């Protein structure tokens, strides 16, 4: 591999890293904006004494969804951030075990070769 190929590979890796970080920051901004809207909706629905929503079941369902969305989305955002900013973290080790990547293929091939009757 010559110098220009090494530089091209370095450039591609750096560009991929920048795109990954940009994707995470965009995800974070959307998360913040949407959750500010959710908090405002939740606040105004429950502080309004002349609430248009009289169905108690609907209000409970809405309250649950307005609270669950930031929590579940936040977990997804956390995983996204860990994936982007930490190359060899705990989550990546777990995902490598359960995702059918090259390491899984190597382990499976060895396992099958060790068995005589596959």
UniProtKB/TrEMBL annotation:
Domain 2TM per the UniProt entry, residue ranges: 12-114
Transmembrane segments: 24-46, 66-85
Keywords for the protein's UniProt record, in alphabetical order: Membrane, Transmembrane, Transmembrane helix
InterPro entries found in the cross-reference section: 2TM_dom
Domain of life: Bacteria
Record-given protein name: 2TM domain-containing protein
């Amino acid at each position: 591999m010559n110098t220009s190929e090494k530089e091209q590979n370095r450039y591609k890796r750096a560009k991929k890293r920048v795109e990954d970080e940009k994707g995470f920051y965009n995800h974070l901004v959307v998360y913040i904006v949407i959750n500010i809207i959710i908090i405002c909706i939740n606040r105004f629905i429950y502080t309004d004494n002349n609430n248009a929503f009289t169905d108690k079941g609907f209000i409970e369902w809405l309250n649950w969804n307005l609270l669950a969305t930031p929590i579940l989305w936040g977990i997804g955002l956390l995983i996204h951030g860990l994936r982007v900013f930490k190359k060899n973290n705990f989550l990546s080790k777990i995902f490598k075990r359960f995702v059918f990547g090259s390491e899984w293929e190597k382990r499976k091939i060895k396992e099958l070769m060790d068995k005589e009757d596959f």
